[in-house]
Every structure is written in C-alpha cells, then in structure tokens.
Specification:
The chain has helices at 13-16, 30-42, 57-70, 95-102, 104-112, 124-144, 155-165, 170-173; strands at residues 3-8, 50-53, 76-78, 149-153, 184-188, 194-199. It has 202 residues and is α/β, with parallel strands linked by helices.
Length: 202
C-alpha cells in the first residue's frame, strides 16, 4: 500500500523568536536542521518515489536534509500551493507584540479560527482553497499510481491536508497542533483513503 508522509519543516529563526512568519523566507536554526536530520532517521524504512515541498527555503532545506539522511535522490516538486498561510500585516511581528497591538482575543481568533483572516492575510480556509486542489491534482495522483510520497511543508498548509485526509470538521482541525520535524505517516489505499496513521517521534 502506498504511503503519504507529511513533515512540518524544522524550527526556523522566526519560530525561535516567536514571530509570525507566513510567506517570509526565513532559514532554519541549528535546532531546525537537527530536527530535519532526526526526521530522516525516522523515515529510513520508506523508499519514497517522489517528494513535494513549498516555495520557501525552510521547507526545502528540511526536505534536502531528510533525503540526504535516507540516501535518496528522487524528483522534488516545489509549489507555492504548499506555502505557509499568508499572515498579511502580522508577518514579522512578534506574537506577544501583536497581542499588545491588536488585543489578545482578536489575535487568538486570527490564529485559531478556521475562516477569519488577519489583515491582508489568509485564514486556514483560504489556505485550504489553494492546498487541497494541489493535493487532489498532484500529490494524490502519485498515490493513485502506488507511489510513496513525502510532503515537507508548513503548519497550516499541512493542517489543511490533514483536515481533508482525516475528514475533520473546522472545529476539529483548529485544535490540531503540528510539531516541527515530526513525520506523520499515512498508509493509503490507491483510491486515496487513509488506512492507518502513525506519528513518529524519537
């Protein structure tokens, strides 16, 4: 049975500084590179046929390290459909400062609601509107072919994919948190249905 593996990129400098990152191209920290290395160690048993990642460096670098650790050279498809949610006016802002500026309640709503977007940014619903068509068209296309697929992307683009795969409601998905560098392994059938899910941690 084909496997679909989702990995959130390793820690970035702005994750470390508690800042909204979105589409800003921020590199990995040393800890982030270490998380990517550990993810590769945890995935050595899977011989991926193809990998997908976003247009952002932190995801691409995480993927590069994972494939290097596994010892695989495979096609890598990069697409901004898998980019992190665009945080608009919040991008670059420290999360504590954002709460002081806009109020803790509204910032919590922007971060944790399904369909309320921050100023000039995307909601999770908006993110899903670009991620899911790409999932259906490209990523699941490989699953239907029986390929093992690795997707390295971002907290919110991956949450939208998880919502689709696990048939979660908007209320359920807003409670889902993804740790950096932790692989989620789905065993699929060739119709794109999830048969089994495993979260791999050291």
């Amino acid at each position: 049975m084909p496997k679909l593996v989702l990995v959130r990129h390793g820690q970035s400098f702005w994750n470390l500084q508690n800042r909204f990152t979105g589409w800003v191209d921020v590199p990995l920290t040393e800890k982030g590179k270490e998380e990517a290395f550990k993810a590769g160690e945890l995935l050595k048993d899977i011989r991926f046929n193809v990998a997908y990642t976003s247009a952002l460096t932190r995801a691409q670098e995480t993927l590069r390290i994972i494939l290097e650790v596994i010892g695989l050279q495979i096609p890598v498809i990069k697409d901004q459909a898998l980019n992190e949610r665009h945080y608009g006016a919040l991008q670059g802002l420290n999360k504590d400062r954002a709460r002081q500026k806009y109020g803790a309640e509204i910032v919590h709503l922007w971060r944790r609601s399904y369909d309320i977007a921050p100023p000039e940014g995307e909601s999770l619903k908006d993110t899903a509107a670009r991620t899911i068509p790409f999932l259906e068209r490209a990523i699941l296309g490989d699953i239907y072919e029986g390929n093992d697929v690795l997707v390295v992307a971002h907290g919110n683009s991956l949450r939208s994919i998880i919502m689709y795969l696990e048939k979660l409601t908007p209320e359920e998905i807003i409670k889902v948190e993804l740790d950096t560098g932790v692989p989620i392994v789905y065993e699929m059938d060739k119709e794109g249905n999830v048969l089994n899910k495993e979260v791999r941690k050291h």
